[in-house]
Amino acid sequence: MQTTQTAEKLALDGGPKTIVEPLPAGHATRSLIDEREVEAVAAVIRSGKLFRFSDHENSECTRFEREACEYLGVRYSLFVNSGTNALISALVALGVGPGDEVLVPAYTYIATAAAVVAVGAVPQIVEIDESLGMDPADAEAKITPYTKVMIPVHMQGVPCRLNDLRRLCDERGLLMLEDCCQSIGARYFDRVTGSIGDAGAWSLNYYKVITCGEGGLAFTNDYRRYERMCFNGEPGLPMWMKDNYGDNFGWQQEPFSNLGLRCNELSAAMIRVQLAKMDTALGRTRAIKRAVRETLSAEPRLYRLQHQDDPHGDCGLSLALICRDQDTAARFGQALSAEGMGTGAAHREGFPDRHIYRYWDSILNQRAYHPNASPWTHPAYQGQVSYSPDMCPRTLDILNRTLRLGLNVNMTPEHGRLIGEAINKVDRLLAV
Ligand SMILES: *Cc1c(COP(=O)(O)O)cnc(C)c1O
Question: Which of 221, 213, 261 lies closest to 237, judged by CA?
Answer without folding.
Answer: 261
